[in-house]
Design brief:
CATH architecture of the largest domain: 3-Layer(aba) Sandwich
Order of helices and strands: HEHEHEHHHEEEHHEEHHEHEEHHEHEHH
Largest sheet: 9 strands, mixed
Shape: globular
Mean pLDDT: 92
Structural class: alpha+beta
Number of strands: 13
CATH superfamily of the largest domain: Periplasmic binding protein-like II
Helix content: 40-55%
Strand content: 15-25%
Low-confidence stretches: 16-23
């Protein structure tokens, strides 16, 4: 009898031990951050350690990569080994929505009190067909960068419309004795088709439309708005620097560098010999009329991979990551991005760099996403942009380019449906 009781007690004790171990086991959650600078690796270790030291139910693993992992993510989803959370740029989120890899987050956002602290446009731009598929955490803005020494020497006012920007570029362009330009009034970002399409889309948005509507699929390239947008891009490019030599801004002979970012600002300050020798103005993109100026941007976003087996735990990690103490550490490590949280814009740690006040100011007003939000954007941006570039460079009439670009866009959309 005693032995039977002892055996029973041992079995109960063993069962309790096993049960406690099962109860204490943490749920593994993995995050991938692709296309990150080397400094982010140390941040990832800090975040992982800080989170795991306080979490009682989740074991977090953060992987950072200096190169894109998009193809690898697709492979891992198929193999059942994908991460639970993935970082990407907001301008390609549509691709992940289209292939079903991004999971809608509305049920989690609805109960997250901090959602109202996000810059409204950065969250709204992540919505497709009524559902939100990611959370923005960082914002990378672009602006026009003016060499104020050249502008002041010319005695002209800074432009505030497309027409005045064209006039400004013509006024500031100076031809030397050999017949070659010595000063360029305006420098486009690049002559690549992708870049031309993004700028064309930006101009269309300033005119109140888009190349292709996200929800309805209505196409508006070969239109009056398309004509105005492409004519402007062609005229301002040819009035300034028709051949791409972007580095000239740092030698002091470009009046406006279009589509500049914190990286170009830093390079210019270094080239000019320091902040004390730099006379630059950062301004929003002018529009067709006064008051239609914009800043375009891409946001760093996290989305939940649809194959995750632990969506509740994954959301807990994402929610923790969005806490200012962790987000600030990431932004400082990255060095050039702004927070997607409104309350963090005035954090002193994020306003230590030169021109930080002007960088914040370019966000004051409407901001628009970098490129089209359509699900097929990554498919059509290059082919359509290549055609538009021919018009920007004066090698193809604007009406012809618009007709060909719209036909190409329609063909890509049609093929995707079949």
């Amino acid at each position: 009898m005693f032995r039977r009781c002892l055996r029973a007690m041992c079995l109960i004790a063993l069962s309790c031990i096993v049960s406690s171990r099962v109860w204490a086991a943490k749920t593994p959650i993995t995050m991938w951050f692709s296309s990150q600078p080397p400094a982010i690796a140390s941040w990832a270790n800090r975040f992982q350690e800080a989170f795991n030291s306080t979490s009682t139910d989740i074991e977090l693993t953060v992987h950072t990569f200096e190169w894109a992992q998009r193809e690898q993510l697709i492979v891992n989803v198929a193999a059942g080994t994908a991460p639970d959370l993935y970082y990407d740029s907001s301008n390609v989120l549509g691709m992940w929505v289209r292939n079903g890899i991004a999971k809608p987050l509305d049920e989690y956002l609805a109960r997250w009190p901090d959602r109202n602290d996000l810059i409204p446009a950065t969250l709204a731009d992540l919505k497709y067909f009524g559902k939100t598929y990611a959370v923005p955490f960082s914002v990378h803005p672009y602006w026009d960068m003016y060499n104020m020494d050249l502008a002041e020497a010319a005695g002209v006012s800074l432009p505030d419309t497309w027409d005045s920007m064209i006039a400004f570029a013509k006024k500031l362009t100076k031809i030397g004795p050999t017949g070659q330009p010595e000063v360029f009034g305006y420098s486009a970002y690049s002559l690549a088709g992708l870049v031309t399409f993004i700028d064309f889309e930006r101009c269309l948005e300033q005119l109140g439309t888009r190349s292709i509507e996200v929800d309805t699929g209505a196409i508006n390239v070969n239109s009056e708005a398309g004509r105005q947008a492409l004519n402007y891009l062609a005229e301002v490019t040819l009035a300034g620097m028709p051949t791409y030599q972007r580095g000239n801004f740092n030698t002091g002979n470009v009046a406006v560098m279009h589509w500049a970012s914190p990286r170009e600002l830093s390079d210019a300050i270094t080239a000019f010999g320091g902040v004390e020798n730099t006379n630059i103005a950062l301004r929003r993109y002018v529009g067709p009329e006064v008051g239609t100026d914009v800043t375009h941007y891409w946001a760093g976003v996290l989305f939940m991979v649809s194959s995750t087996k632990h969506p509740e735990e994954a959301w807990k990690v994402l929610e923790a990551w969005m806490q200012p103490k962790y987000l600030l550490d990431y932004l400082v490590a990255w060095g050039t991005n702004l927070p997607a949280r409104k309350s963090m814009m005035n954090y002193p740690e994020l306003r230590t760099g030169p021109y930080s006040d002007q960088i914040i100011k370019v966000m004051d007003g409407p901001i628009i996403p970098y490129g089209s939000r359509h699900l097929l954007y990554t498919d059509f941006r290059g082919p359509v942009g290549d055609i538009l570039t021919e018009a920007v460079q004066g090698r193809l009439p604007v009406p012809t380019a618009l007709e060909q670009a719209e036909r190409t866009l329609k063909q890509i959309v049609s093929e995707a449906k079949n």
